[in-house]
Design goal:
By secondary structure, the protein is mainly α. It contains four helices and no strands. The chain is elongated, with a radius of gyration of 22 Å. The N and C termini lie far apart (53 Å).
Length: 70
């Protein structure tokens, strides 16, 4: 774990710029926004799924007044 911290701690602005340039060269200017959009949608779906699992099963089966659905 300490090695990961040491490696991650040494990344500076120059390295980030080089990584960004490499991504731009690999994927092209048009593909990167599509990739970011897909990543954002994935995160959104993950949050939605995690919120729906937080609701207890018995609460999900009741209507607004607390009565069981028939």
């Amino acid at each position: 774990m300490e090695q990961l911290f040491i490696i991650a701690g040494q990344i500076g602005l120059t390295e980030y710029l080089l990584i960004g340039l490499a991504l731009l060269l690999l994927f092209g200017g048009r593909k990167i926004p599509e990739l970011m959009k897909g990543l954002g949608q994935g995160i959104k779906e993950f949050k939605k799924a995690s919120r729906s699992e937080d609701v207890p099963a018995d609460a999900a089966n009741n209507d607004k007044e607390g009565q069981p659905k028939v």
